[in-house]
Design brief:
The structure is a homotrimer. Chain A is an alpha/beta fold. Chain A has two domains: about 130 residues, Rossmann fold (3-Layer(aba) Sandwich); about 150 residues, Rossmann fold. Chain A contains eleven helices and nine strands. In chain A, the strands form two sheets. A five-stranded parallel beta sheet of chain A has the order 7-6-5-8-9. The longest helix of chain A has 19 residues. The model of chain A has no long low-confidence stretch (mean pLDDT about 90).
Amino acid sequence: MSWNRKHLLDIQSLSVEELRIILSTAAEFKRVGERAIKKVPTLRGKTVVNLFVEPSTRTRISFELAAQRLSADVVNFSAEASSLKKGESLKDTARNLEALNVDVIIIRHGATGAPHFLSRFLSASVINAGDGAHEHPTQALLDVFTIQEKKGDIKGLNVTILGDIQYSRVARSNIWALLKLGANVTLCGPSTLVPRHFEEIGCKVTHKIEEAIANADIINLLRIQHERQRQTSFPSIGEYTSLFGLTKSRLETTKKDVLIMHPGPINRGVEIDSDIADGDRSVILQQVTNGLAVRMAVLYLVTGGRGTQEIAPASA
Amino acid sequence: MSWNRKHLLDIQSLSVEELRIILSTAAEFKRVGERAIKKVPTLRGKTVVNLFVEPSTRTRISFELAAQRLSADVVNFSAEASSLKKGESLKDTARNLEALNVDVIIIRHGATGAPHFLSRFLSASVINAGDGAHEHPTQALLDVFTIQEKKGDIKGLNVTILGDIQYSRVARSNIWALLKLGANVTLCGPSTLVPRHFEEIGCKVTHKIEEAIANADIINLLRIQHERQRQTSFPSIGEYTSLFGLTKSRLETTKKDVLIMHPGPINRGVEIDSDIADGDRSVILQQVTNGLAVRMAVLYLVTGGRGTQEIAPASA
Amino acid sequence: MSWNRKHLLDIQSLSVEELRIILSTAAEFKRVGERAIKKVPTLRGKTVVNLFVEPSTRTRISFELAAQRLSADVVNFSAEASSLKKGESLKDTARNLEALNVDVIIIRHGATGAPHFLSRFLSASVINAGDGAHEHPTQALLDVFTIQEKKGDIKGLNVTILGDIQYSRVARSNIWALLKLGANVTLCGPSTLVPRHFEEIGCKVTHKIEEAIANADIINLLRIQHERQRQTSFPSIGEYTSLFGLTKSRLETTKKDVLIMHPGPINRGVEIDSDIADGDRSVILQQVTNGLAVRMAVLYLVTGGRGTQEIAPASA
């Protein structure tokens, strides 16, 4: 089987086979990042646009570097001072970008479904870099890539996702990827943020952290968005930390070889103890490194890459 | 005859011959955008600066992609957080950029004549990307390129420009280009925005839309800047639409093969009916595509390009 | 002796030998900027990040062009809308960038020592682009490069630095470079801004401009930061100009071949008379040109460049 999609919109609609193609392609590209010349000519003469309607320096830079290392031309489009501010619709903005013979539009948007909407009328490829509280597929891909790299096969592993599940696109994309690859997924957090209905798609739901972490092979901590804290969800940051923060004493109750993951940026001392973030179980920075490889793979695949024989070093 | 100018400051001072050189060069570059590798090595090792003192994501990206596809290095300079904010004069900012061995400065500025001012002391090439209410030459070039592509020779065509003529640099540049190429130009809009004195340079002026569109081969609609509406010019957006908007019933009174143009971003339902914008007479998105080809041509010519034998594909 | 440093953090810790290596390497790179193709393949496949936590368009563009002309990939990271705004620490931001296999982090930061701090845990190279009131090493390097270019050996030259010495990183870096290379350094300005303790490191301190400029071979004027004027340091801009501004009548009391320098952006009519800034003794724009050569040299050296045989023209 081979890759036939022009877009990467979500994880939910991908087959297990497609997930595996992305992961194995990312493994090839990871080696590129370790070379002295971290660049291949694969997307030379192609144009990639970072259409970040919702700002994110971190994800934008990861995609920008991924495109540069594939030798694509990249332009950054941020919503400030743009025609979107002048009342232009997203549809018209995207069609205007496409009229510039753009090959890939990477979109981050506050509204669920914005990438799917674009994919319906654009002939350019669309990559979802996060849409509302819906999905953030490349984050999930880098997470499962990292798990696979450290633990081998994902099938049968116990993965606990801890934090604000309800409003998290990272959680949602991770859940789909993990379930498809055969992991046992446990969700944990305040009952206001981790509703029972996630059980219907095959997750275990608990509001007791002790129960959630005891048998976990992987603990994926979500960021507490304290800069836009939802007052009604939990009383205070301190309260959250005392009930759900990954502290040293809690870490002692986990398996010795548990992996600690976090999509970043981390809040040291809030959802994660600072020493744990820097400790030897943490793979937080490896996730960042793998994100670049995964994004190179996705750019490569959606633009029609079929094999890895093209991933040769760029000539000087 | 060949191209001898180092700058592109306006349309008014160009000869018919020079206009034709740009248009035929743009036709060559348009083919580059249709290749799998949309890139030529023409400006390799040259540096282009986008000096956008007045912000414009759309035009900036078009110039940025044009420069990238010519293999130039591009840096973006926006007025926010820059030395201009610290009280540095435009002259000093430009001379500092030039001291970095910059080859081309593309300037957008709120003040009429800013590009001409720079050209007087800079040895770098200057391209006007819009100066106040004065000129926006590459917009006019892409407009006449699009007309020529669809209609053949411009001579004798009836072109109607509709909207805020008085304060529009797009209108002004279009008028000069169209008159030079032999079109019959009609200007239409509220009398507060379309003064009679345009008749002196050879345009027809009317304030009745029916009269303006009846025999038009091309209708070029200008954007109503409703985000900074001049209260004194017309009573309300609704009023403008009812008197001058291009509605379906009005379209029925035009020639069957009329071209509908708009520099974008469009206000659907204000100056143009949404279905007309997306309809088969509209060439709005082709204008965007052609804008890139025209800007590649201009960058090529002002930096000393003399023929099109250099427009070979970039090696991989 | 050869270059062995992975970082450029300050001037104070450099040896005279190291200073000379940078200056001679910069001389090689200056020639690259004068070629038709201003680009060499030296850093192809390397990634450079401009981490400008304190904004500066001018310095950012100089570094960006330096990296582009070495064929590196460059991404710009500004503090606005970034994870730093979400409460992430500088350490975590930098480690995240490094996890993207970044080779060089160029940092400008409001806090003294920020680049040194990063260099302690990063394996990427760190270049200080200005840290608080501490140092701005590439500015000092371009200043001494310019002096050397115009005057030959710096040893024994009388260099006067005029203005806000106390809070100026430009002054501090210049003082170290000039003293190491054997210049006689005089500091002058209001007593509130030019404290006596600079005498301890070998400078002459005076609060009388006549005395400071009479025998100067070079006068380096610092910018008066009038947009954030410290009310307590001097009564008013007008007062400053009348007491310490470089006026035409004051220039007549200097040596005939004195060089006038300024790091820019200049305040015409405040610290410097407008005609003097544009006059034939001024080397202000040459400083800008040399800044690019110096920054190319620094990028080259910190990434392991050992000789100049690699500085060949890039193939087309």
